[in-house]
């Protein structure tokens, strides 16, 4: 790349980042505004105080966390077990069919997932609520666990498991001692993905929640009323939390890679 | 590996049949029955009347997808030519807004575009009159582009990091200019990223009801909004709503089939 072209691409990257971040920074700035509208009238913590005394938001945050915890643990167990089971199958057609069905929640529009589950619950005469929410969340979280564990099994050296058996391990013990540690990174990735998908979900929850309030459902009902400055405060807090998590995990992984490089140099 | 653990997948298989496959079939069942469960095609006849909304959804989503591609393509390419550490930082910066709830991201644009929003306040403060920004098709397209552009950038970026620098240099040495390199080397090599990015943007965009509801107002009623009101809103009718959803699913399946066809052709060409 010539110098001029490199400069141009730098400018373009900066502009795109501006496009991505400007709206978020607008929310952050106006979360500290002392009045309701979008003209600056002075600095204040008012909306943060109101946010933390808003019972509905706190209550729905609690619901969201409980549902995400249950759904992510359940889908991790279900999905990881499924990956192990499918991996030990020999029937290729069945394997392919299972993979295709697992893909369905990932490729179909969220609204279709939402209404199809709503139809199921109404067909089964089950009213929307906590249980229907947990079931729905597990259903769209479990494929991501399945697809993050399966490649770890494929990468694994199969001889290790057989060696453990030859050395006198019972199959369950060999699984726990040899296979499980190998696929653990995949299980953890899958769990984290499931947890964040569940936290972030709006569309599927919206159709299956009944009267239960989750954080995104509460947010939706608030933004429909247009100006609600507590939402600005909430966005700011969420942004800072996400930023922290990403910084910590990224700094850690970059440090790890640097340590690896150093080791390689010594060798 | 002689792992004998087929049974561990049985709960999962049962779960997926119960909560993914059967619900999808129920859409078909509800679409072709009436409230008492008898066969009818009245719902489909009603749903066909919504084709204008479907056309509007498809055209707005298509515009948004093209804009995403045009904006993301040079970005992803520039990003893939950065140093390793900068690339890591950039992909983090792209993912960060994605991790914010998408309702909040859309709400941010509502705050900016509203009649009393940030832009109009700024215009008024320098003595200019307000402009109508919210409740237009343009606002909906903007919301789609903003929300879904990371889904275009990331797949494009991941194929572009695999394009070796020496391939570009070779093209250059053999006399290809900038556009020839782009058209004959970079574009074919990045085709898988274009295909997956396009579907990842188009599918959520065409089925959205939140973005159109929050930024589009009553004049931009999309197919997603229709489905929403039939399931949870004032025109409650599960059967008719299912028929409308079936229409949406057909559109999604057709577009995906078209794109998969494109990617298959490219794979074959690459083999030759």
Architecture overview:
By secondary structure, chain A is mainly alpha-helical. Chain A has a domain at 55-235: Orthogonal Bundle (MetI-like fold), CATH 1.10.3720. Chain A contains eleven helices and no strands. Chain A has helices spanning 3-31, 46-52, 55-87, 92-107, 110-123, 130-155, 158-166, 171-200, 203-208, 215-223, 229-266. Chain A is globular and about 75 Å long. In chain A, 37% of the residues are buried. The mean pLDDT of chain A is 90. With 272 residues, chain B is mostly helical. Chain B has one domain (51-271): Orthogonal Bundle (MetI-like fold). Chain B is 76% helix and 0% strand. Chain B has helices at 10-31, 42-48, 51-80, 84-99, 102-113, 118-125, 137-160, 165-173, 178-189, 191-206, 210-216, 223-231, 238-271. In chain B, α3 (51-80) packs antiparallel against α10, α7 packs across α11 (210-216) and α12 (223-231) packs antiparallel against α13. The model of chain B has no long low-confidence stretch (mean pLDDT 90). The interface between A and B is large, with 89 and 87 residues.
Task: Estimate nothing, just give the exact number of structural domains of chain B.
Answer: 1
Question: How many E strands of chain B?
Answer: 0
* Individual helix count of chain A: 11
Straight-line N-to-C gap of chain B = 36 Å
Morphology of chain B:
globular
Mean pLDDT of chain A: 90
CATH class of the domain at 55-235 in chain A: Mainly Alpha
Question: Which segments of chain A are poorly predicted (pLDDT under 50) over 5 or more consecutive residues?
Answer: none
- Mind telling me the C-alpha Rg of chain B? 23 Å
Tally the helices of chain B.
Answer: 13
Question: Under the CATH scheme, which architecture of the domain at 55-235 in chain A would be assigned?
Answer: Orthogonal Bundle
Kindly estimate the percentage of residues of chain B that lie in beta strands according to DSSP: under 5%
* Portion of residues within helices of chain B: over 70%
Can you tell me the CATH topology of chain B?
A: MetI-like fold
Query: Strand pairing plus helix content of chain B: what structural class?
Result: mainly alpha
Query: What value does the Rg of chain A take, in angstroms?
Result: 24 Å
């Amino acid at each position: 790349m010539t110098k001029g072209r490199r400069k141009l691409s730098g400018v373009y990257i900066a502009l795109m980042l501006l496009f991505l971040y400007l709206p978020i920074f607008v929310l952050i700035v106006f979360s500290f505004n002392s009045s309701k509208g979008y003209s600056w009238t002075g600095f204040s913590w008012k909306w943060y105080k109101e946010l933390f005394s808003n019972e509905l938001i706190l209550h729905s945050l609690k619901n969201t966390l409980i549902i995400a915890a249950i759904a992510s643990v359940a889908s991790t167990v279900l999905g990881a077990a499924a990956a192990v089971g499918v991996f030990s199958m020999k029937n290729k057609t069945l394997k392919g069919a299972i993979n295709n069905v697992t893909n369905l929640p990932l490729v179909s529009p969220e609204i279709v997932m939402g209404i199809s589950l709503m139809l199921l619950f109404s067909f089964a005469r089950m009213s929307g609520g906590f249980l229907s929410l947990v079931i729905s969340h597990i259903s769209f979280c479990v494929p991501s666990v399945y697809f993050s564990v399966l490649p770890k099994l494929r990468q694994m050296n199969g001889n290790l498991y057989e060696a453990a058996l030859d050395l006198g391990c019972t199959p369950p013990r060999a699984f726990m001692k040899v296979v499980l540690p190998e696929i653990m990174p995949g299980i953890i990735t899958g769990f984290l993905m499931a947890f964040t998908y569940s936290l972030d979900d709006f569309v599927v929850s919206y159709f299956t929640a009944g009267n239960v309030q989750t954080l995104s459902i509460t947010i939706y009902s608030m933004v429909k009323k247009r100006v609600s400055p507590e939402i600005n405060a909430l966005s700011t807090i969420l942004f800072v939390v996400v930023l922290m998590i990403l910084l910590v995990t990224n700094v850690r992984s970059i440090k790890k890679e640097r340590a690896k490089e150093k080791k390689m140099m010594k060798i | 590996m002689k792992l004998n653990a087929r049974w561990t997948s049985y709960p999962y298989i049962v779960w997926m049949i119960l909560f993914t496959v059967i619900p999808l079939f129920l859409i078909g069942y509800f679409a072709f029955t009436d409230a008492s469960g008898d066969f009818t095609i009245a719902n489909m006849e009603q749903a066909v009347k919504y084709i204008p909304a479907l056309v509007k959804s498809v055209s707005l989503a298509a515009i948004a997808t093209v804009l995403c591609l045009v904006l993301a393509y040079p970005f992803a390419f520039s990003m893939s030519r950065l140093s390793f550490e900068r690339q890591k930082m950039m992909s983090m910066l792209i993912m960060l807004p994605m991790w914010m709830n998408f309702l909040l991201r859309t709400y941010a644009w509502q705050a900016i575009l509203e009649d009393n929003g940030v832009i109009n306040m700024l215009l008024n403060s320098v003595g200019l009159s307000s402009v109508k920004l919210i409740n237009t098709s343009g606002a909906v397209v903007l919301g789609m582009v903003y929300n879904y552009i990371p889904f275009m950038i990331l797949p494009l970026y991941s194929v572009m990091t695999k394009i070796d620098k020496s391939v570009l240099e070779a093209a250059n040495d053999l006399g290809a200019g900038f556009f020839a390199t782009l058209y004959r080397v970079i574009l074919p090599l990045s085709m898988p990223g274009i295909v997956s990015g396009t579907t990842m943007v188009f599918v959520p965009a065409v089925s959205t009801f939140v973005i159109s509801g929050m930024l589009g107002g009553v004049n931009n009623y999309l197919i997603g909004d229709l489905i929403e009101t039939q399931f949870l809103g004032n025109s409650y009718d599960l059967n008719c709503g299912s028929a409308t959803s079936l229409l949406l699913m057909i559109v999604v399946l057709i577009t995906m089939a078209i794109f998969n066809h494109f990617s298959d052709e490219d794979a074959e060409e690459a083999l030759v």
